[in-house]
Amino acid sequence: MTAHGVSLVTLDIAGTSVDEGGAVYVALRDTVEKHLGEPIPDDRFDRWKGTGKRQAIEGLLRESGVPAEKNVLDAVESDFTAMLLAAYRKTPPTALPGVHDAFGALRQRGIKIVLQTGYSRQIAEPLLEQVGWEIGRDIDGVITSDQVRMSRPSPYLIFRAMEIAGVQSVDEVLVGGDTPNDLRAGTNAGARYVVGVLTGAHDAATLRPEPHTHILESAAKIPELLG
């Protein structure tokens, strides 16, 4: 166990660790609205930010009164993936300022870094390649939503991150993310630190009412938080 008792920092990717310009939510909204043939109200769409993207597609269809059968889900998810990967090829994602240095500082202290995301591995792997992060050099692992039965706000992405890191106690875990569902997942996991960051999809006014231990300007501030 290391500084402040933390052995694992597990963070969301888009909006928390990586700046991808919000392309994920443009692609998600466009593909679902195209299938529905009508716009999605903002409050309905916002509820699904931070969840697994297939889970979000299913929820948005269901809440719009459209049966989300497997063939429909497969088709919409395929369109979403193609649109998002095309957006990333056009404008490659980059590490958020200071985050790569923060990872290095934490790993020097013996703290593991495992990213966890609502993306599928098909999206996460090329995204991290574009950013230039390698497992074993920059981070210690990545868990994607298609590796668990339920994505956020369920805690299973976090538990899988703990498994990769070899951490047995949630009291040694810091969870960070930019959406209410990130904070709910961290709380549902029982993590020692549940940290909201203001670099992504939501502002402080949206994150503060959610369960958390800290709200930070950026994940780059996590080494400072841990002292």
Automatic annotation (TrEMBL):
<dbReference type="InterPro" id="IPR022468">
    <property type="entry name" value="PhnX-like"/>
</dbReference>
<dbReference type="InterPro" id="IPR050155">
    <property type="entry name" value="HAD-like_hydrolase_sf"/>
</dbReference>
<protein>
    <submittedName>
        <fullName>Phosphonatase-like hydrolase</fullName>
    </submittedName>
</protein>
<dbReference type="InterPro" id="IPR023214">
    <property type="entry name" value="HAD_sf"/>
</dbReference>
<dbReference type="InterPro" id="IPR036412">
    <property type="entry name" value="HAD-like_sf"/>
</dbReference>
<dbReference type="Pfam" id="PF00702">
    <property type="entry name" value="Hydrolase"/>
</dbReference>
